[in-house]
């Protein structure tokens, strides 16, 4: 038994489950619930931010991807073309590619939009009633919608990636 492979596989599966499960919960339940409660939903999002949600999830995703890449390299014998082009290799590779796209969207779209929305929401709360406050609120809403849409897309990508990796051995 190779302890390094067992450890990396365990990390990859557990962290991947956490990443995918969190994003699915976020997209399917948390964001719609926060939206339903109106202005009080911002308190929930602020509490998540204080708990470093927007830092933890990218770190978990990065560790999932890095452990997966190492496992893929090891399993494929250094990216042997015969193995990589097998059904098993293609399924794992496609799952990995979908995960990389999900990570890119999370880091490039979701996280910046959520951080900017939170910062603007804090500023907006201190502005007096008027056109400036209304304009800033509109920007916050737009950013929240972008975050939610990206979150739904990332959740779908992670569902597909997880499904491909789960059945790859049997293809």
Please give a structural write-up.
By secondary structure, the protein is mainly alpha-helical. The protein has one domain (3-165). Helices cover 87% and strands 0% of the residues. The protein contains six helices and no strands. The relative contact order is 0.14. The model has no long low-confidence stretch (mean pLDDT 93).
Structural class: mainly alpha
Q: How many separate helices?
A: 6
Order of H and E elements: HHHHHH
Largest sheet, described in full? none
Radius of gyration: 19 Å
Number of β-strand runs: 0
Low-confidence stretches: none
Q: Give average pLDDT, whole number.
A: 93
Topology:
Blueprint: H1 3-36, H2 41-50, H3 53-75, H4 81-84, H5 87-126, H6 131-167
List keywords for this structure.
171 residues, mainly alpha, elongated, single chain, 87% helix
Concise overview:
This protein has 171 residues and is mostly helical. The chain has 6 helices and no strands.
């Amino acid at each position: 038994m190779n302890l390094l492979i067992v450890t990396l596989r365990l990390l990859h599966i557990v962290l991947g489950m956490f990443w995918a499960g969190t994003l699915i919960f976020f997209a399917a339940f948390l964001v719609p619930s926060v939206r339903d409660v109106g202005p009080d939903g911002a308190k929930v999002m602020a509490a998540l931010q204080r708990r470093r949600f927007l830092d933890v999830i990218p770190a978990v995703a990065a560790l999932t991807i890095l452990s997966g890449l190492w496992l893929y390299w090891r399993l494929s014998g250094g990216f042997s073309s015969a193995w990589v082009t097998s059904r098993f290799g293609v399924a794992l590779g496609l799952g990995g590619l979908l995960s990389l796209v999900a990570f890119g969207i999370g880091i490039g779209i979701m996280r910046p939009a959520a951080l900017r929305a939170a910062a603007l929401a804090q500023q907006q709360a201190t502005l007096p009633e008027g056109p400036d406050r209304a304009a800033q609120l509109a920007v916050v809403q737009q950013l929240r919608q972008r975050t939610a849409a990206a979150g739904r897309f990332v959740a779908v990508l992670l569902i597909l990636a997880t499904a491909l990796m789960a059945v790859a051995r049997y293809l």
